[in-house]
Protein 1
Amino acid sequence: ATAPGIVKPLPPELFTVRGTNAETVFSSLRGTGVLTPADRFFVRNHTVTPRIDAAGWELTVWGSGLAGGPVRFSYDELRALPASTVTAFVECAGNGRSFYATQQGQQVGGTAWTLGAIGVARWRGVRLGEVLRRAGVTRGAVDVLPRGLDDEVVSAGVNLGRVRRPLPLAKALDDVLLAYEMNGEPLPPDHGHPVRLIVPGWVGISSVKWLGDIEVSDEPLYSPWNTDMYRLFGPEHPPEGSAPLTRQTLKSAFELDRDAALPARRPVLLTGRSWSGAAPVREVEISTDGGAHWRRARLHDAPRPGSWVRWSAGWVPRTPGPAVLLARATDRAGRTQPDVSVHNTQGYLFDAVVRHPVTVV
Ligand code: MTE
Ligand code: MO
């Protein structure tokens, strides 16, 4: 399988190619640790993966929110600053989008992801706050605008410019990382080499890859990625759309192929993962009969913010024929996955319990 503009191999047991993007096959995570290996981490590119040499690269920080003129950092200078690590997922805002159509019968636009547009990695880099302070950020600054070095995005004949998404200064100074390592290795080209942003818990678009410059502004900033895209539009939302999306929602997925064949009267260990951008997952319930009965799954990881928990539940399928598996998570913010996700035209933030069909044979 190949997707235009992605550098790494995309073997079909690890990835489903969706247009120019690659979705992780969830069953390929079974038996792996909390961290998604880079070879099976999903890829979402608005353009194509650029090849950037770290040696010639630099980051420019500039704008009305700085005390002075632009400040530049080379790759070696960034690596010499105090380092931080964070375990965090990157998840596309549209992850789960296909279920608006297949489960709720609703029209939505965008990449028809199932649940594999997410990966968790251990990111190492320097705090964005550290870099902003060194660049002379002032008290009057309100927004920062990180921008990628990949090509300009042309959508329906309109040039939107380079991928860039405003971030409120408060978040920028909180837990955001300029990451240069993923799972202990330099960032691979597809994931933002040499340096990307990691915005823990927030929609994937915030974690700008192939970072080139950051505008720091004393006025609110706008780009198509926080005005026309990555807001909720449609009859259930304000006419001007919701506020720009920030935190990810709650989801669960089985590490099992859809329509898998499971032998009757043979014990099977169902495994999967649940995650939330709002708070750590504290409970996962499983149903093997389409939602008539529920029981608790065993959690294998301590709940951690911005990451997922692995879980398992034993099952002995009795009756041959079709069955529907469900997994439903609750997080420490008190949210439980609903039966139906609130529709929006671009199909963001799907959070309903996903029906997972299998066949008992
Ligand atoms: N950054 C740049 N420069 N260009 C992009 O196309 N895609 C964004 C984000 N950062 C993108 C980007 C989106 S929509 C997502 S979901 C994540 O990167 C995907 O990160 P990954 O490809 O490392 O999984
Ligand atoms: Mo995304």
Protein 2
Amino acid sequence: QPVSADGPIADYLSDLHFRISRLGGGNVASYIPELAKADPNLCGIAIATTDGKIYAVGDADHAFTIQSVSKPFVYGYALARYGRETVLQRVGVEPTGEAFNSIVLDDKHNRPFNPMVNAGAIAVAETIRGKSDDERVANMLDLFSRLAGRQLDIDEAVFRSERDTGHRNRAIAYMMLNTGMIRRPPEEILDIYFRQCAVKVTCVDLAVMGATLANKGINPLTGQRALPEEYIPDILTVMNSCGMYNYAGQWSYEVGIPAKSGVAGSIMAAIPGQIGIAVFSPPIDEHGNSVRGVAACREIAHDFGLHVFKTS
Ligand code: GLN
């Protein structure tokens, strides 16, 4: 992907990076043992525009696993495959106010609260087409590769590490088997879910994926459609209300842009018709959001006037 190094946006980003990369606080995620090896000093920021320009600073080309930033995209895939009504029977659109990995379903419908928490994402992962693990992996990678505009792969070490230790997600999957929210064998669904979380991306990739959402589902670099335009508002709405987990309310209040975070330390945001933003820095706070990522997005949203409800 061609990155623009000059101009006011590039200058702005290097200033921002200089300040943000020096911030302390947070800890690298360690509940997935392989993630604990991440260098806490890494810090990259990238912006991609809907007309195909990319601006990037710091460690924007460093590869990490996408983790929960995968969730909005697979939700879009499920909507495209089965439509709103069917998907709504398996996953709601209510924020939980609870941790991303909480073992809870809404007690009216017995379904996961929303597709941005693990329970909802695991339910949604069942919709990935394929008769074998290999076919499902190929289809899942095809989705992410279209979104990023280049062929993406899985970080096998992170995948195995989470598969071997992700018993909390196993508990969630079995609870949903019990309520009929998933129908296929939990291990089969967890296999694709853990692999989806272990897709290797860079900040530049995530910025392009955000720009694809901002561009009505068409990747601005390749011109290829990755998701149907019809479901982009669904994706952005749940990102807005649930993307930052139990920090989502404060995030909307202060930053006011639809975004999604992942425990490897990334945050991706999308501003419809304008840009995708991505920040990567491994230390995360108590909600599971990158400390430097939150700080950088807060500044970008303020400086570019991006808060959806702030008009001046
Ligand atoms: N793979 C991680 C999990 O299921 C994703 C969580 C996250 O990024 N918040 O726990």
